[in-house]
Amino acid sequence: MSSSETDTPSETGPASGGTADPDARHNAKMAKKKAARDKIMAGKAGDKGLVIVHTGTGKGKSSSGFGMILRCVAHGMPSAVVQFIKGAWDTGERRLLTENFSDLCQFHAMGEGFTWETQDRARDIAAAQAGWAKAKELIRDPAIRFVLLDEIIIAMRYDYIDTAEVVAFLAAEKPPMTHVCLTGRGASDALIEAADLVTEMTLIKHPFRSGIKAQPGVEF
After folding, report:
1. Which fold has domain 51-202?
2. What is the pLDDT of residue 44?
3. Phi and psi dihedrals of 129, rounded to 5?
4. Any idea where the domains of the chain sit in the sequence?
5. Is the CB of residue 84 less than 8 Å from the CB of residue 131?
C-alpha cells in the first residue's frame, strides 16, 4: 500500500467533517428542526385572550396560576386575583402582591376556608357568589389583561357557583384580549371543552400522606 493511501483520511471519517462528525450531525438535525418549526410558526397569526384551566389531583394548580400573574406584573400588564374557598389564608403570594404590586395586581380574597372549617353551607355559597360577582366585574374591565380565579373550580364542583353560567359568561362577555385562568381539582367536561388551554396536574407523591403538614413557601 502506498504512503498516499495510508496518509489520506477517509472522506467519511470524523476528520473530514462529514456525516460521521457528531457536531455536524447535530447542526444538520437542528437546522432541519428549525426549518420545520419556522414553517409551523408562519401559519400562526394574531393574539387571543385565553381561557385557561388548571385542574387535577396533583399540587401546582394555584402555583402555576400565580406564576402567570407574576409574569403579567413583570410585563406591566394589569391583572387581578379572586381567591375562592381558601381566601382566608395568609399566603406568600397574597403578601407579595398586595405589599409590592398593588398598582398592577388587584387581590380579592373572598373565601372563608374549606367547608369543613366554616360548617355553614349557606355562608359558603354566599362567599362564593360574592367572589363570582367580583370576578365578573374584573373580567368585564378591558383594562385588566389577566384574571386568576383561584379555586373557583372547587366552588363550581360543590354547586356554589353554576358551571353553565360561568361557561356562558366567559363565552359572551370576556373581552377578546383578556386571559382568565380557573384553578381547582375536578373541572367539569363543559369547562374543559370551553377552555383554550387545559393542564391536569397528576398526583404521584405528596408529603401530607407521610404525615408532613403544609410548608411555607411550598404550599402557601
Report:
1. Rossmann fold (3.40.50)
2. 64
3. -65, -40
4. 51-202
5. yes
- Strand residues in 129-187 grouped as ranges (E): 146-150, 179-183
- Gap between the Cα atoms of 87 and 214, Å rounded: 16
Lowest mean pLDDT among 1-10, 64-73, 143-152, 154-163: 1-10
The answer to whether the beta carbons of residues 78 and 143 sit under 8 Å apart is yes
How large is the angle between the packed helices 121-140 and 163-173, nearest 10 degrees? 10
pLDDT for residue 117? 58
Cell numbers standing for residue 174: 370576556
Alpha-carbon distance of 109 to 140, in angstroms, equals 19
pTM for the structure as a whole:
0.80
Residue written as grid cell 381547582: 184
Amino acid, res. 18: G
List Cα–Cα distances, 128 to 55, 70, 115, 189, in angstroms: 18, 25, 11, 21
Residue 46 sits at φ, ψ, to 5 deg, of 85, 165
Query: Grid coordinates standing for 212?
Result: 408532613
For residues 167 and 207, give the distance between their C-alpha atoms in angstroms, rounded to a whole number. 35
> 138, 82 in Cβ contact below 8 A?
yes
Q: Which of 184, 175, 153 is nearest to 48 (CA)?
A: 175
